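Q: Here's a chain of 123 amino acids. Please give me its 3D structure as tokens.
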Amino acid sequence: MRIYSSYNAAPPYITKDGSIVRELMHPAVHGNRALSLAEAIVPPGGETLLHQHLKAEELYHFTAGVGMMQLGDERFRVKAGDTVCIPPGTLHAISNTGADDIRILCVCCPAYSHEDTEPVVTV
């Protein structure tokens, strides 16, 4: 198990929700058991797709920026220092309403997987 990771060693990629993510600790890479920790970035004017995770519970901790969070039927402002719990199966999205990147530390249990991420298509 690799109990240490470096931010610069975690290559960024685009998730199904459209955010830029770096997996800082993930069982598939580091050998930990159940959790994943990632940083998600949403640039100014950007937003993630409305989506849900059927199995994973998520915690979002905002470390920079301001935006609007949709969590189920609720919409509310978020800013650096806020933390949001996202239960499994709850539709959610974030839009950046500020001039700087929104940076979010995301904890998932079980660990994040593309297969557990379902974008919602609105018509």
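Q: Can you summarize the key feature?
A: The mean pLDDT is 92.
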